[in-house]
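Per reviewer request, we include the raw input and output of the structure prediction for the construct analysed in the revised manuscript.
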Amino acid sequence: MAGGENLTDRERADIERAAQRAGKLAGLTFRVLFAHADGDTRTYAERAHASLTDPAGSVLIFIDPGARQTQVVTGSLAQRTIDDRAAALAVLAMTTGFSLGDLAGGVVDGLQMLAQYGHRPPILHTDTP
């Protein structure tokens, strides 16, 4: 997580813990990036996502607080369980928190939603014992 200069150390730690929990639940890597986008926000977020260690299995939440823009970028593996609708609902949850002045809480809520969408329950029975 970069940027987010207005976050306290505790808020940063809360976001990092939420990202780790989301990753364990969904089997994906979640990253949060606070930065000023140079140009188009979506393009900037996609470039940042592409630079991750495992873009295919990653979900990037990009937040440009100054421009009031939030983007969720999912890799090819992540898109199997987190579709555009799920990402849009998570952004809505985050921006609701942001509008109440709770930047960290909004991000944590969004991470929790994305993790729930990304979670695949284990198969309990199959045809072979």
